[in-house]
Each structure stands twice: as C-alpha cells, then as structure tokens.
Design a protein that fits this description.
Helices cover about 25% and strands about 25% of the residues. By secondary structure, the protein is α/β, with parallel strands linked by helices. Strands 6-5-4-7-12 form a five-stranded mixed sheet, sandwiched between helices. It has a four-stranded mixed sheet with strand order 8-14-10-11, with no helix packed on it. Strands 1-2-3 form a three-stranded antiparallel sheet, with no helix packed on it. Strand 2 and strand 3 form a beta hairpin.
Length: about 250
C-alpha cells in the first residue's frame, strides 16, 4: 500500500510531496515500513511501441510524450518506436523533428508482429536497472503517468499493468463515455532485469500476428513469483478504432 504526504520544509512555504510503501499488519493500527520493497524515484523509463502504418497515431504519440516532458520536466525517459516499414509516414523523420531529447527508431522488415517488435525494443535496452514499459497505440497518456509507473514497478518484486478507459466510438478526452478495460495487459512495465528473467516475449508462438502475447507475459510473470499491480489511472484513455485492416493483418 502506498502513502503520499505533504511536508513543509523548515523556513519555507513550499509543500513537498512524498510517496512510500507502508503496510498495516493484521490486528494492528500501526503502519510499518516495508523491507526491500521500495520504488526508485530516478529510474530511467523506456516507452516501447511496435507499429505499422499508423501515421496519425504515431504523430499523436510523439506529441503526447512531448507534452509530458514539457509539463513535468521529466527527461529520464526515452521513446522507442519499432516500425514495420510504414508507408504512410516517415516515422524516423517525425521523431527527428520532435522536441524529444531521447528517442530511438528501429526499422524491421516482414509482416507485422507486435511481440517481435516489442522484443526488439527490449533487446535495445541494456541497462538492467531501467524500467521498460510496453505501450499500445491510440492512447492518451496523462503527464503524471510516467512517474506513476516508477512508483508501482519494483525490481525483483512487482510489475505494473494499469487499466485504461476505453472510449466508445465518437467520444474523446473532452467528451468521455466508455468503460474501464480490465482484460488487457498491453501496457506492461517491469525492470529490464525482470523482463530478461521471465524471457521477454514469446516470439516463436506469437509470430506475425497480435493478440494474447501480453497475457502470456503476465502469466509467466506470475509463475516467476512477481506481483502485478493493476489500477484505474484517471485520464489514461484508449480511443475507439476499427480493427479492420489494422497492421495490414487478416486477423
């Protein structure tokens, strides 16, 4: 369980927010600190997405991350885009025109594979003490979300799989109607060391298709003894979209 508090510094009027993990033992009213269960406030976060021919949504994602960094001044993150030869947008050029100080572009050939693309992004990350968060497209990511990822991803202990609010057709972030989506693990965060321990994505089973590869990751995560923290994060939205022709797939 987490606790957030406000502390006033001596001689100053500034309000400093703190956040830490505490627990309440059974039959007790005294909160206790955890042992070896803490979040890293300065952990570097890699945001990884695999895509093909989603030009408008690729631009939307880049602008979304730009907005997050302008608002939070959090530059301990990097957007990694794995692109299966998109023909509707020069993704690398779009990244180079952005204000993002850190980004990485990976170009892959052949039929689209979400698992294969995300695994390529995982393979790019070499720091075992960094957090790797896989993303879906069509999202609205609030400014405080990245730090929330840090708070709920604990190395060797806990993964983070937030739920998003799935918007109904025709609705937007200023005109909201839809439902919280519990049946997806498409947005999934763990430390790179933990991703490596569970074996990453099963690219042999989930080859040139998308779907269920995220559930497979969650299952193996639990088999290795990790907790998976799930929460409804306010403002974390997923736009409605048709699946017809998505990723140039016949699924």
């Amino acid at each position: 369980m987490g606790r957030v508090g406000g502390v006033r510094l001596d001689g100053k009027s500034d309000l400093v927010h703190t956040s830490e993990y505490v627990y309440l033992p059974a039959n007790s009213n005294q909160l206790c600190h955890t042992v070896n269960f803490n979040w890293e406030r300065d952990a570097f976060v890699y945001l990884i997405v695999s895509l093909k021919n989603l030009g408008v949504w690729t631009t939307h994602l880049i602008h979304n991350i730009e907005h997050i960094q302008r608002v939070t001044q959090d530059f301990n993150l990097e957007l990694v885009i794995v692109d299966y030869e998109s023909s509707d947008l020069s993704v690398e050029e779009e990244l180079s025109k952005s204000s993002l100080p850190k980004w990485h572009y990976i170009r892959k050939t052949g039929p689209f594979s979400r698992a294969g693309g995300l695994q390529a992004g995982l393979d790019y990350v070499t720091d075992p003490n960094s957090i790797v968060l896989t993303l879906d497209m069509h999202l609205v990511i609030p400014p405080g979300f990245v730090n929330y990822v840090r708070k709920h991803t604990v190395e060797g202990k806990m993964a983070f799989a937030p739920m998003f609010f799935r918007l109904d057709k025709g609705y937007t972030e200023v005109n909201i109607k839809g439902f919280w989506e519990p049946y997806t693990f498409g947005i999934f965060g763990m430390y790179k060391s933990d991703w490596d321990l569970i074996g990453g994505f099963n690219t042999e089973r989930y080859t040139h298709k998308w779907g269920e590869e995220d559930v497979d990751v969650a299952q193996r995560c639990m088999e290795h003894g990790y907790e998976i923290f799930r929460i409804r994060y306010p403002g974390f939205l997923h736009y409605y979209h048709s699946r017809k022709g998505l990723w140039d797939s016949k699924q």
